[in-house]
Specification:
Structural class: mainly alpha
Radius of gyration: 19 Å
Strand content: under 5%
Number of helices: 5
Distance between the termini: 59 Å
Largest sheet: none
Order of helices and strands: HHHHH
């Protein structure tokens, strides 16, 4: 009985701490995946990911982006949108559309 208690209590405590974080990440990753997928009109919703990156990314990460990215975002420049969306997807640990994953060749 003591062995069960010594195993169940720490494992249960870790699950209670880890599981809500993991479920929140799964929801965010699924939503980001839906936004990067192509819609019926063939357009992605990278604008939403870019806006989220502009609102939540730490300033040092935004400062590392190419000059004029903020103005390009406001003007709807596709390169600026992709750069900002990639920043948000990197925060979630997801690949940007068109960016090769580990072990994939760049063509």
């Amino acid at each position: 009985m003591l062995a069960v208690v010594l195993v169940v209590l720490p494992v249960g405590w870790l699950l209670l701490r880890w599981l809500p974080w993991r479920l929140r990440w799964l929801r965010e990753a699924a939503a980001a995946d839906r936004l990067t997928g192509r819609g019926a009109d063939g357009v992605t919703d990278l604008e939403l990911l870019a806006a989220r990156a502009m609102a939540t990314a730490p300033l040092p990460q935004l400062a590392r982006l190419p000059a004029g990215t903020g103005a390009g975002w406001r003007a709807g420049d596709p390169a600026a949108l992709r750069a900002l969306a990639a920043l948000e997807l990197d925060r979630l640990g997801l690949r940007s559309p068109g960016r090769p994953g580990p072990g994939q060749a760049v063509l």
